[in-house]
């Protein structure tokens, strides 16, 4: 797919990976609709996009809470009115949580499922009729390598990201007859503000695994050599090619293949590595 002139709608575009994606798509010549629950942040991202001619027609900034089906409908209608359709949807908006299955309250599960999983469902449902009518388009869901690796004490986060991978594979089957592509991105650690929105479960009496895992994740993000720009570039390339599964880190790709081929060996290695981290 050539991206020049394509109409791209990105959720959670006000910061982090969403902003990096907006910049990458715009640099490739696409028109980008930046949406975020914080309209000011979306506007700031839109202002950063490289101007080309009539800049007002090449970038939009719209408020969108992905927990609202009505807001998704309104946003897609606004993009359609401005540009005549949507070629690429990137379901990027997401939050983080920490806690074991035993410790994480159901309110935490409901909170993250509503955003990370149902946000992708609402986004897909909002654009599917339009893309089917166009007989073209591409849906990108941002999952995480956590949805493949499933480390301890990130229970509800892991589950939502694994569900996004499953949702994406289902969509791939369902949308292929309509000429619509699907990609799911599973980045590992990179520097982002995701943990700033994290909800951590209070540990059970005598337990401290969840706080430790939160600190470990934050430290791994800070030390990551892969940037949000690197991840965004890989995702944009997956739309251009196209590719379905986007595992953006080389070491994560190795672990993915190891888990598929030797799942018990992978479990033993991952458990040993996790225990070593927790012991620090």
What features would you highlight for this structure?
52% helix, Rossmann fold, 13% strand, 9 strands, alpha/beta, 280 residues, 7-stranded parallel sheet
Give a short summary of the structure.
Helix content is 52%, strand content 13%. The protein is of the alpha/beta class. It is globular and about 55 Å long.
Provide a descriptive summary of the structure in words.
With 280 residues, this protein is of the alpha/beta class. The chain has a single domain, classed as 3-Layer(aba) Sandwich (Rossmann fold). Helix content is 52%, strand content 13%. It is built from 10 helices and 9 strands. Helix 3 packs parallel to helix 4. The longest helix has 29 residues. One of its GO terms (cellular component) is membrane.
CATH C-level name: Alpha Beta
Number of helices: 10
Q: What count of structural domains? A: 1
Strand order of the largest sheet: 3-2-1-4-6-7-9
Mean pLDDT: 89
Instruction: Give the DSSP E fraction (strand runs of 2 or more residues).
Output: 5-15%
Low-confidence stretches: 202-209
How would the global form be characterised? globular
Assign a percent range to the helix content: 40-55%
Order of helices and strands: EHEHEHEEHEHHEEHHEHH
Radius of gyration over C-alpha positions, nearest whole angstrom? 19 Å
CATH topology: Rossmann fold
Q: Mind describing the biggest β-sheet?
A: 7 strands, parallel
Find the count of extended strands (DSSP E, 2+ residues).
9
Structural class by sheet pairing and helices: alpha/beta
Report the oligomer: single chain
Distance between the termini: 47 Å
CATH architecture: 3-Layer(aba) Sandwich
Could you give me the name of the CATH homologous superfamily? NAD(P)-binding Rossmann-like Domain
